[in-house]
Amino acid sequence: MSKPVTSIKLVLLGEAAVGKSSIVLRFVSDDFSENKEPTIGAAFLTQRVNINDHTVKFEIWDTAGQERFASLAPMYYRNAQAALVVYDVTKPQSFIKARHWVKELHEQASKNIIIALVGNKVDIVDENEEERKVAREEAEKLAEEEGLLFFETSAKTGANINEVFMGIGEKIPLKGPEEEAQGSGLNVTDDQRVNLDSPGNADGPAGACSC
Ligand SMILES: Nc1nc2c(ncn2[C@@H]2O[C@H](COP(=O)(O)OP(=O)(O)OP(=O)(O)O)[C@@H](O)[C@H]2O)c(=O)[nH]1
């Protein structure tokens, strides 16, 4: 008998160039690119993983960090069950931005949303500790105060990337086979990648859009 499948809608938020798309690329394709183009609008990808006796299907919305796309974010985090709020451990400004995202999610997103705070590019710090500009303790304190999961990652080396998604998967109540039979309302192909400059494309934000 096939395993029950639970879909988890997950959104990535964070300042431009902190490595959101690279985290997704590492998770979905176990790959890394030194010269990743900035995301335009948002990108959509899926990945399945097995957790205990379940298959968890992550439906991932990778949002653009550039300020000109900031107003689109609510369309992606509304109805999300999980969010990764990403900052760059070498960029203090990106941690300030991460605090803002956590606040906004708590005010505007689903009450039960699971949030993981993710300090990326830890490989740079591993090479030279002087490059660290956001103390691990400071991030841990924020995570504790706000009830967040917390990870330091490197999309470049792959360090802790799977752990972030497994950590989220383990916190979300997994459905039984009967509930899954009703479906999530989304009908997307695995490993589909769509670059969206209009949120009317693909399923997800379009359904939630009040425009
Ligand atoms: N050293 C190092 N570089 C990284 C890491 N993750 C991403 N990068 C680099 O950082 C740059 C930005 O990465 P992206 O994944 O495009 O960042 P983003 O947050 O998706 O950016 P936007 O799409 O503009 O929001 C790229 O040159 C990546 O190669 C990492 O873990 N370590």
TrEMBL record:
Keywords: Nucleotide-binding
Annotated region described as Disordered, given as residue ranges: 176-211
SMART domains per UniProt: RAB (SM00175), RAN (SM00176), RAS (SM00173), RHO (SM00174)
Top-level taxon in the UniProt lineage: Eukaryota
InterPro entries in the cross-refs: P-loop_NTPase, Small_GTP-bd, Small_GTPase
One GO MF term attached to the UniProt entry: GTP binding
Pfam family membership, one: Ras
Record flagged with keyword Nucleotide-binding: yes
Xref: PANTHER family: PTHR47978
Protein name from the UniProt record: Rab family GTPase
Species of provenance: Maudiozyma humilis
